Amino acid sequence: MELKSGFSRYYVYSLPxxxxxxxxxxxxxxGVNIDEDSxxxxxxxxxxxxxxxxxxxxPLITINNLFQExxxxxxxxxxxSIKIGADLRRRQTDPFQSPTARGQFSFDxxxxxxxxxxxxxxxxxxxxxxxxxxxxTTRSKYLVNPGLRNWETAAYLQDDWRVTRRLTLNLGVRYDxxxxxxxxxxxxxxxxxxxxxxxxxxxxxxxxxAGVLPDRRNFAPRFGFAATISKGTVLRGGYGINFVPNMIxxxxxxxxxxxxxxxxxxxxxxxxxNRLADGLPxxxxxxxxxxxxxxxxxxxxxxTPYVHQYNLTLQREVGAGxxxxxxxxxxxxxxxxxxxxxxxxxxxxxxxxAIQPRRPYYSLWPDVAAISVAAPWYNSNYHSLQTTLExxxxxxxxxxxxxTWAHSIDDQxxxxxxxxxxxxxxxxxxxxxxxLMTNYELPFxxxxxxxxxxxxxxxxVNAVVVLSTGIPFSIGxxxxxxxxxxxxxxxxxxxxxxxxxxSVFRWFNTAAFATQPLYTFGNVGRNTMHAPGxxxxxxxxxxxxxxIERMTMQFRWEAxxxxxxxxxxxxGGAFGSTSFGVIxxxxxxxxxxxxxxxxx
Length: 600
Known about the structure:
18-stranded antiparallel sheet, 3 helices
């Protein structure tokens, strides 16, 4: 039997660059800098251009306490090794984080376009900024310091069974329970979209978890095997389900009125509704009976995301000290929550006229813009062929070469009203990747002695080679045409990968895209393009000397990106902007360093 008890504390105090400075006030923005949480510079975004201002979601001040009790029993019986265990955890999470305490002013080209539509793309987001006409203005400020609490429990049974000398089976089952969050003073609230009202924990019969139900269905079977097929050949495989708790991020923290101050103004493509010079009104607790701005409900179902994982691996000795491995590995995600946590269910369908009256929940909450629901919206699947060729250190040489072909697809929704167009490459879809790592001890003067031996023996060379394709990105409109208050994408009318001369000024065929008709979604899918890949060679040479018995001197010369190959960033993906298709950033060039270290 093994019994464990533990406590850990994790403390985050992350502050923006201009924390404590009233930078927005100094620049003439009214009503922004009212306390330390809102100090600094407001976020100003321009379509297709660099963002100004301090980042969103900071200051981030979080204290996490974890109390844990673990019990395991291992029982050996014949060819079986049976293990039974349980795990109990109590989490105390105190996160304070406002999404946009300083406010955010977003500008696009719509409000400086030719209003007749005769000249497409005639506007400019910088011109809209100079005129002071934001496409949208938002502020979401947290008013309380919450103390979230929840329980986690787990139990498992596993049997490692040595069936024969050549076959071992691993059989098991695990149960996980991740309780819903509660708050020490019931300072959390949720949105009941069916009844059309905001519910507050501990009031009017609402549960302490603000209506979020526990998920008690998390049973996870596991199976694995290892079989020796012949001398030097092994076949392994396995399957299992893994439940993954959701992070207690802003979208999952039940931050809704009356514990937040929310403010949103969204202009139409032809009519500004406010000016930058107006600044922001004083933040006050938003009334739950008449909310404004944006709401962030959490689905009552409280489902726990889970992943099916399985693999089949063949490993073989191939001579000269090399071992080759080939694996098929897959992961299928279910009940997944959107990466940023939520989907706006209050986004109107494309159409003319003012945006706000066309929102689905306008009749209930006429002053609410986004209703970003955190719910198990999407599924994902990942399939891969993973190969390695390894030579462990022998006769002064070791090497490891890997090649992976993989494809990751999901239907993570970005445009809520266009979900059919959202299934596509995952943002982690790295299709091809090759790596080579070597370490070679140079065979100079092996039989030498004396001063010559000290000078030339023991030198080692290391090298790392990485070749990979790029990660995907989406093409979007610099100025949206659907008139939904959110982004959209243009139409694809040609082949973006042919019919042009590729350069950093035109990385793909920009003529393959065209403006879609007004008040419609374009037909371009999500993450259909890939950024430039990576080609890099890092190398080092090092040697250790022993001037005396108890002292070691180490010399190292290291070169990163030795070939000085430009590691290009992704090209501009905002259709209609001057940066569309243009690569304007790159990673570090060749970098070398020399070091001398004394160890004693």
